[in-house]
Amino acid sequence: MFRRIHWNNRGCKSIVWRCISRLEPTGQECHARTVNETVLENVVVQAINTLLGDTSTYQAQLQQNIAKVIRSAQQKTADGIDERLQELQKELLKKANNKEAYDEIADEIFKLREQ
Description:
This protein is an alpha+beta fold.
């Protein structure tokens, strides 16, 4: 992990990125060099331009990533709905057996089944 710092090296002031372990005692040793922010900015811009220049590669990967996230979210939602339905069905049976009102539970079950 790096941290952005204002550096004064032999009278030359600049903004650099340094390993946190060089700034604080972390118990880990870092062998990475200090990186000048201007150099870092240029390298990042070049990398983004290279990526955007080859649209076929990054667009396909982007579409795969988006689809994966959507499928994962839908699966989690479906699993959560199934779990809630099971809980509500148990509560419904308890209330029905005890001759208690269960209209709210039944309404929620119907809504979850629609989802």
